[in-house]
Amino acid sequence: HADAPALSLLPAGRIVHAGNGPNVGSGGEEWVVRLTSHGMLDPSFGSYGQVKGTSGWDILHIHTMARGVLLAVGSHSLERYTAAGVPDRSFGPGGVRRLSTPHDTFDATVDAAGRILVLATSMSSPTKVEVKRFLPSGRPDAGFGAHGVALPRGLPHAEPIALATQRDGSVIVLGATTSKPKPSLLLARLTPTGKLDSSFGRGGIVRPPIPSRRVSLSVAVAPDGQVALAAGENFLDPSRHARLLLVRYTSTGRLDRSFGAGGVASSDASTIEHRGRVVPLLPHAIAFDAAGDTIVAGANTYGRIDRGTEVPWFLARYTTHGLDCSFGTNGIVIGNEPGSADAIAVQRNGRIVIAGHRGEALIAARYLGGGKPRTCPGEDRTTRMREG
């Protein structure tokens, strides 16, 4: 089972995405691929448009630096490539630098200043959230937490899920508590120095109105500083209606009451019928377009249902008030091929790019964006969609 969680857009419409082979971390392979604006492998990059990673650890994020240099952030290492797709040996042996990270790494990203952030569990406990920040050189950032490590005290007995960064260097952390009797989700914001931000929510923490049983989650920060959290359910029971949820918070951690119902857009249009079976839509990534609309991408949990039949990916677009009915069918577009959308980005011309996988193959697709947004009426209605 492969994945392709990393996507970056380059000038002139070129696309870079990266993914991991089925045995990554144990002698498997990571790949970085560059496409032309027409979706063809770029022969001027690496070997016919592809570069094989050398660290043996999974890639979580790909970042474009000056002059087309690429930085691949992995769970335990950084890999840097020149614009021609050659390992940058000035960065380290084989273009690789090891990161001193715990063994359980959940997410990674690069902030606006080029600093690398890694979300993991603490080495002392699997239920302690740890955020590490590294300088672009790969060295621990002494200006963050204690010697580059922040241990948010307000997240007791929590398991890390995902993180995102804001323009000022603040960090949004999504986790799930394991406390009884009622586990819950937590969103925390850290200041640029790694402390809980008391101006966000209550003491730096908010509790999203989402049951912890929703197992597919993604978080992102909009250009205006608002925080979007997408969630989906993991079951294939036709007698129940899975809902795709999008929760939006203001930059101060308050629910945006102008969005959906009190800050939550909840739609039963999150299931599709695929060959007579109901398949839930589970979010994997979030992006924002120039108009401020939110676009969510994902797939069925494992990308497969009975008898190995693959199901397609999906896209959902939201206006500033809820699902956008000018987009696809009731705000949702179903892919015309099997596969999973693991990452999403929006080009300057408004076109939407997804990267993902089908089996062990990496895939990319591009959609026309734009159009006049129109919020769907009655988003709570049960709607069944057939694949397009």
Rg measurement, Å = 20 Å
Strand content: 35-45%
The assigned structural class equals mainly beta
Strand line-up across the major sheet: 1-2-3-4
Task: Summarize this structure briefly.
This protein is an all-beta fold. The protein contains no helices and 30 strands.
Tell me about this structure:
0% of the residues lie in helices and 44% in strands. The protein has no helices and 30 strands. It has a 4-stranded antiparallel beta sheet with strand order 1-2-3-4, with no helix packed on it. A 4-stranded antiparallel beta sheet has the order 5-6-7-8, with no helix packed on it. By secondary structure, it is mainly β. It starts with a strand and ends with a strand. It has strands spanning 3-9, 15-20, 30-35, 50-52, 59-64, 70-74, 77-81, 96-98, 105-110, 116-122, 125-134, 149-150, 158-165, 171-177, 185-190, 205-206, 216-221, 227-232, 244-249, 264-267, 271-274, 277-280, 282-288, 294-299, 312-318, 332-338, 340-346, 352-358, 361-367, 384-386. The protein is globular. A hairpin with a 2-residue loop joins strand 21 (271-274) and strand 22 (277-280).
